[in-house]
Amino acid sequence: MNKHTRGFTLVELLAVIAIIGVLAAIVLATLGTIREKARLVGCRSNIRQVGLALELYSNDNKGFYPPAQVLNDGDDNGWIWCSTLIRGNYLDRRILLCPGDTVNQAALKYAGTNPPETGRSYSYCARVMSNNTHDKGTPLQKSLVETPSWQYMLTEWHGAAYSWKGHAGELANYTLATNSTANISPSHKNGGRHFVFIDCHVEWRTPDKFGDINSGWRLNNKP
């Protein structure tokens, strides 16, 4: 005796399709979150390596960090702080780009023709690494820093890519906190940024924690 096989009704088919759609949306959202976390981990690793390269340079140069810019030195018209690290084999230039940076660094204004002048995602914090002066050629000596766990060394700041030979590029400063459009790339969804401190530890901070002119943006401001 043949058994009658009951098929799906239209309502049941629509229900199955709806469930599949919901599951697909959940999977895609999860994959997006995983990718974002992976980019954050990669970016944190890169900026930490830049900080460690600066520390190694300092150890080899009587406690001095590279100046923000070097003018008329050797066979060029000068170069910027990260070029000093690359020329000294302290850093691979590819580390200067955050995996999550969506800005076309090479197309930015004043982008030069030679790496790393073609773009970077990280920048010196201006009034700390320039020894609290307006002279970008003045190097900071680590022994002058009273609170190394509080003073900013580096942060994510896509304006740092602006450069030509002898130009320091845009240096990060407290306007990152006071001006929501100041040199901020859409690298991270919530507007947060990684910061490297003089003692080389790395912190993730949201905009409300960036601080103002009286915070770690200036040399020897007190906590």
Name the features.
alpha+beta, 30% helix, 223 residues, elongated, two-stranded antiparallel sheet
Count of runs of 4 or more consecutive helical residues: 4
CA-CA gap between termini: 87 Å
Q: What share of the residues does DSSP label as strand, in percent? A: 5-15%
User: How many domains make up the coordinates?
Assistant: 1
Number of strands: 6
By helix and strand content, what is the structural category? alpha+beta
Biggest sheet, open or closed, and with what strands and sense?
4 strands, antiparallel
Query: Taking strands numbered 1, 2, ... along the chain, how are they ordered across the largest sheet?
Result: 3-4-5-6
Explain what you see.
- This protein has 223 residues and is an alpha+beta fold.
- The protein has one domain (12-209).
- The protein is built from four helices and six strands; from the N terminus they run H-E-E-H-E-H-E-H-E-E.
- The strands form two sheets. It has a four-stranded antiparallel β-sheet.
- A hairpin with a 6-residue loop joins strand 1 (69-71) and strand 2 (78-80).
- It is elongated.
- The N and C termini lie far apart (87 Å).
- Residues 106-116 and 159-168 have low confidence and may be disordered.
Q: What order do the helices and strands come in, and which of them pair?
A:
Elements: H1 10-60, E1 69-71, E2 78-80, H2 81-87, E3 122-124, H3 126-129, E4 152-156, H4 175-178, E5 193-197, E6 202-205
Antiparallel strand pairs: 1-2, 3-4, 4-5, 5-6
